[in-house]
Amino acid sequence: MVENILQKLHWLGHDGFRIDAEKTIYIDPYQIKSTVPADIILVTHDHYDHCSPEDIKKIQRPTTVIVTDKSSAAKLSGDVRIVKPGDITTVQGISIEVVPAYNTNKQFHPKAAGMLGFIVTVQGVRIYHAGDSDFTPDMGTIKADIALLPVSGTYVMTAEEAVQAALRIKPRIAVPMHYGAIVGSRKDAQTFAQQLEGKIDVRILEQE
């Protein structure tokens, strides 16, 4: 089932993904080419490369539900539901757990800001999107089948720190993200994969 869901997971560049399951779910759409209508849009925080009203308008329809934090909600319109770390909600039959995302050794994403990561359960498979996070103690409690982890450094954890996060979370499959747009390159994704070889199955997705 995990492989089946992975085939429905599309990397849209940077931190953006689309999940084509019983509902069409987007996470942090930014500079996207996709115009497939969204049932659910998850936005991790209010920085322009994650909360992009312009991109959301491309895929939003009257029935679309947006799940996000208070700061991002102020920039968006429609059916917007505000959540915070620790919340668990169900939207259109999809279970969404909200987890913290923050920096531990830099100040771009302070813990006090309440920025978000998400665990979305699709057909029994738990997909964790870490948002713009460093490797944090909270990750010790994350249970996920697929983990989407930033690897670029600068604003988020480095590839080496993401390796530590993956080893702590122990997903069936880890997918690197947060590279190729603003900071980071495919080399960061490859470093992540190489250091986890023989330990965790890493899939580097092609951007769509």
Question: What features would you highlight for this structure?
Answer:
208 residues, alpha/beta, Metallo-beta-lactamase, Chain A, seven-stranded mixed beta sheet, six-stranded mixed beta sheet, 18% helix, 29% strand, globular
Question: Can you tell me about this structure?
Answer:
This protein is of the alpha/beta class. It has one domain: 4-Layer Sandwich (Metallo-beta-lactamase, Chain A), CATH 3.60.15.10. It is built from five helices and 13 strands. The strands form two sheets. A seven-stranded mixed sheet has the order 7-8-9-10-11-12-13. A six-stranded mixed sheet has the order 1-2-3-4-5-6. Strand 4, helix 2 and strand 5 form a beta-alpha-beta unit. Helix 4 packs across helix 5. The longest helix has 11 residues.
Contiguous helical run count: 5
Q: How many E strands?
A: 13
Largest sheet: 7 strands, mixed
Shape: globular
Gyration radius from CA atoms, angstroms: 15 Å
N-to-C series of helices and strands:
HEEEEHEHEEEEEEHEHE
Give a short synopsis of this structure:
This protein is 18% helix and 29% strand. It has 208 residues and is an alpha/beta fold.
List the helices and strands and how they pair.
Layout: H1 2-6, E1 9-13, E2 16-20, E3 24-27, E4 40-42, H2 53-59, E5 65-68, H3 70-73, E6 79-82, E7 88-91, E8 94-100, E9 116-122, E10 125-129, E11 146-150, H4 159-169, E12 173-177, H5 186-195, E13 201-202
Parallel strand pairs: 3-4, 4-5, 5-6, 10-11, 11-12, 12-13
Antiparallel strand pairs: 1-2, 2-3, 7-8, 8-9, 9-10
